[in-house]
Amino acid sequence: MDWLIASDYSWTRWLWERGIAAIYVVAFAAAALQFKGLLGTRGMLPIPAFLRTHSFRTAPSVFQLHYSDRFFALVCWSGATLAAAMVLGLGYAVPLWLAMALWLVLWAAYLSIVNVGQLWYSFGWESLLLEAGFLTVFLGNDDVAPPWAVLVAAWWLLFRVEFGAGLIKVRGDECWRNLTCLDYHHETQPMPGPLSWFFHRLPKPLHRVEVAGNHVAQLVVPFCLFAPQPVAAVAAGIVIVTQLWLVASGNFAWLNWLTIVLAFSAVDDGAVAAVTGLSPPEHAGVMPVWFGAIVVAFAVLVAVLSWRPARNLLSRRQRMNKTFDPLHLVNSYGAFGTVGRTRNEVVFEGTTDADPVDEASWVEYGFKGKPGDVTRMPRQWSPYHLRLDWLLWFAAISPAYAQPWIGRFCEGLLRNDPDIVRLLRHNPFLDEPPRYVRALLYRYRFTTAHERRTERAWWHRDLVGTFLAPLDLRELDRMKR
């Protein structure tokens, strides 16, 4: 089994496993803190209703066997606790077989959540975490040297993430080809961060450099991941730097952080020593036959399942963030094939007045991440994921994204449902729920430097129209019937 051993990638495994475990902590905690309003028994898209129409074959999940809000919370917090223990090194304190079992439990628990998560879990980084988490099961601990097959699978995963994103861009919006997309993207991205205003206000020539650098990082550099050292480590360093740039310029949950973790899979101990002077962690120099056989079987599985993602990469009809099996084992990735030139935001308001006319006293709800109050600086939320705020960005583009859940959301506001209003930053009706709620559509843009100085505002907004006419509980009851 010596041919399976990658003995000079000990730091890779050490960083990879702790990075994946840390992201699991965030993912499980985010699920626990948000699920009741989104997916709970009385949530906007209740899991029990979903389970009545989906079998274990189409949506494998432990919740197919039993569901209650208490059990869902138990799975989430147990997953977060186990992942935190793995960050602290539990996987190295137990035998190899048990470490593999613990990683498999984390993967199966998060798969169970994603497969019942419906629209709220329809983002590419869910599949990315599951695919990377499944790879981690076979990475081993210091009872065995890191396996080559798992490292190559990680490079192949990182290649699909980066190259897939690059292809979807140059095949898609013309602004990626003429290098103008970042004239708009920092302003129109789903959830700008605290530095996004400053990135947007960079001189346009620098935006051209940003786009050109992105093309190089995503269309050229990924091929170098498979090159000998130190070329592969340099390629990984470029990926890491570009991902940190994206972390600074916006909020994309754990997508960028997970990509950074995967990039470290191409950094060998020599590169780490050259930069830090650290000696690599020790590991056993042999590989048990049973473990080697499992790794070979895993490699064959990845090779077989890679056919459709590889074909998707080469297709002119390339699809972003496509999962080809319900276990999310080998997927395709990509983002922002098109870039919006303008930004619309859905703003919810409520009133306690008896007549819901425009002249009534309408008060605005505040959301945690998405733009609302024009004087509020955008916040940094990544790697945490605010699922409602993200779906509202899509809803502003097309109301169809909100159709399955917006009625229940409005009902939650009208009843001051604690599980739903907890998803908000600011509920102006703490003492008495509103009689009516409505939603308006505004056009948002970043303020100019002059406006920023004089108005102390980060955004300027203009009313576009009505997104949702005033509703009360009686109207919602009629809509249900």
Secondary-structure map:
Elements (H helix, E strand, L loop, with lengths): L9 H29 L8 H5 L17 H19 L2 H4 L2 H19 L9 H14 L10 H24 L2 H4 L7 H4 L7 H5 L3 H16 L1 H4 L6 H19 L5 H9 L5 H8 L12 H17 L1 H8 L28 E9 L11 E2 L1 E2 L19 H11 L8 H10 L2 H4 L2 E3 L9 E11 L2 H7 L3 E13 L1 H8 L1
Antiparallel strand pairs: 1-2, 1-5, 3-4, 5-6
Average predicted confidence as pLDDT:
95
Low-confidence residue ranges = none
Main pleated-sheet profile = 4 strands, antiparallel
Write out the strand line-up for the largest beta sheet, numbering strands in chain order: 2-1-5-6
Structure summary, number of beta strands = 6
Specify the helix fraction band: 40-55%
Shape: globular
Radius of gyration, taken over Cα atoms and rounded to an integer in Å? 24 Å
Number of helices: 22
Q: What kind of oligomer do you see? A: single chain
> N- to C-terminal separation?
66 Å
| Percent of sequence in beta strands | 5-15%
The run of helices and strands is HHHHHHHHHHHHHHHHHEEEHHHEEHEH
Which terms summarize this structure?
481 residues, alpha+beta, 4-stranded antiparallel beta sheet, two-stranded antiparallel ribbon, 6 strands, 8% strand, globular
Description:
This protein has 481 residues and is of the alpha+beta class. Helix content is 52%, strand content 8%. The protein is built from 22 helices and six strands. A four-stranded antiparallel β-sheet has the order 2-1-5-6. A two-stranded antiparallel sheet has the order 3-4. The longest helix has 29 residues, at 10-38.
